[in-house]
Amino acid sequence: MATVKLRRTASMWRTAAAGVLAAVTLGAAVACSSGDDGDESTSTDGRAGIHTTDPLGHSVDLDHDPAAAMGFYTTDVDILATLDVPLASTQPVREGYDSFPSYFPQDKLKNVTDTFVNYPEFNYEAVAEADPDFILNGIGGLEEAHDRLSAVAPTYSDNSFDGEPWLGHFERTASDLGREKQLAAWKETYEGKTGAAASKIGSAGLGDLTVATLNFSDNRFSLGCYAGLECGVFSDLGLSLKVGEEDEDLELGMEQVNQLADIDAVWFGTVRGAADDPDFVEMMNQLNASPQWRELPFVKQNRIYTYDMEMQYGSPSGALAFADQVTRDLTEQH
User: Fold this and answer.
1) Where are the beta strands (DSSP E) in 94-162?
2) How far apart are CA 126 and CA 215, in angstroms?
3) Could you give phi then psi for residue 77, rounded to 5 degrees?
4) Residues 113-164: pLDDT tens digits?
5) Which of 37, 203, 230, 321 could disulfide-link 225, Cβ–Cβ 3.0 to 4.6 Å?
């Protein structure tokens, strides 16, 4: 089984750089349009099914609409579910999870009866055994993945972990698969949710807060948004960013902790968002031993929050859930 890492910057306790996931020059996409009911992907020649070219230049041809699709990484499963693509009964999860994140659309997952661990080691044998009729592969930066997966079923590959904003990848995928109607429905839901949440945060007198996602590893802080999800949500909630959506991650040593003094609230990613995650607890014990850390405004005001680390990789349900998380944290606990 092959092993690969998704993170390109140091995370608080998990994996390091994603050097193998290099960006690939994009090929031109073959235009697709959805049927009247939004459940059929058609090419310009009117054939049913999926007939397109993925962002990495692979031709993708499936002569029928997917009936048992698989997402190669967890975020791919969420994208398929959000786009109303029927799922195979077996799907992958990442190490540390025995099921999907709770914020995934559970009604779309009701036919999934079995899972297998597929990250950080990839289990191509389990993929073949699941017998999907279509595979969405967001780990296209690993060249062997497309070749091995396309031998099982028609595969649409994208390098979703190239450091570019997740939303662009999602929009391209939806368009290529002829699921523009489902994409538009998700955007309407997201805009409605973040609009209402921004009003709630503003009414609570918290709209002027400066916020950030924060990691701490090897005695160094890292601030930034890997796939842009958290920064995008913060902005859509009307909050100010310590590190902007287009900025490089900010790396600071412990001796530079005073540079965090202009932040009002921070979020750390943990397994399932648990505040009692052993690694998170150990990290906080280390930080709380520092007098400089204890003097930071967000520490004094107890505005240190956790969220499910899986959200950082970018997916439609993750964006909705992170908006809910931030709104609850800011308005229900203070």
Assistant:
1) 114-117, 121-122, 134-137, 155-157
2) 33
3) -65, -45
4) 999 999 889 999 999 999 999 999 999 999 899 999 999 999 999 999 898 8
5) 230
Answer for the pair 221, 260: CB distance below 8 angstroms, yes or no: yes
What whole-number distance in Å separates Cα of residue 265 and Cα of residue 297? Answer: 8
d(CA 121, CA 1): 6
Residue 199 to residue 201: CA distance in whole angstroms: 6
pLDDT tens, 245-294? 777 789 999 999 999 999 999 999 998 899 999 999 999 999 999 999 99
Rounded Cα distance between 326 and 265, Å, is: 10
Which single residue is written with the structure tokens 């956790």? 306
Contact 60, 46 (CB under 8 A): no
Are 104 and 317 a contacting pair, CB within 8 Å? yes
Give the 3-state secondary structure of 148-181.
Answer: HHHCCCCEEECECCCCCCHHHHHHHHHHHCCCHH
Contact between 222 and 215 (Cβ < 8 Å): yes
Looking at residue 59, its amino acid is: S
Domains and CATH numbers, the chain: 2-179 (3.40.50.1980), 186-332 (3.40.50.1980)
Candidates 236, 224, 201, 235; CA nearest to 329 is 201
pLDDT digits (tens, 9 = 90+) for 294-324: 999 999 999 999 999 999 999 999 999 999 9
Paired residues of 222 in beta bridges: 215, 251
Over the range 269-288, which residues count as b (16 or more CB within 10 Å of their CB) and which as e? bbbebeeebeebeebbeebe
Rg of the chain over Cα atoms, rounded to whole angstroms, equals 20
| Burial tier of 332 (Cβ tally within 10 Å: 0-12, 13-18, 19+) | exposed
Residue closest to 138 by CA, chosen among 117, 161, 106, 122:
161
